[in-house]
Write a structure and sequence with these properties.
67 residues; alpha+beta; three-stranded antiparallel β-sheet; two-stranded antiparallel ribbon; 7 strands; 19% helix; 33% strand; binds zinc ion
């Protein structure tokens, strides 16, 4: 499991969510998550309804280098 820190675009809350397996397809700019982020207030979010925080970005970078 991989927990990343996100910000919900709907309610602006910052939360951590387990996105499962993360893959980095070369043809895409964005990584693929096995599960989408789950906001504690809004439930499961779609792409574009959340952003990675700075902390989330660095967590993702670590996953990238250790995968
Ligand atoms: Zn929310």
């Amino acid at each position: 499991m991989t927990e990343l820190t996100f910000k919900c675009s709907n309610c602006k809350k910052i939360f951590t969510s387990d996105v499962g397996k993360i893959s980095f397809p070369i043809e895409k700019e964005e990584p693929d998550f096995e599960r989408e982020a789950m906001c504690p207030s809004c439930g499961e979010l779609k792409r574009g309804e959340y952003t990675l925080t700075e902390e989330g970005q660095s967590q993702l970078t670590k996953v990238f280098f250790y995968s």
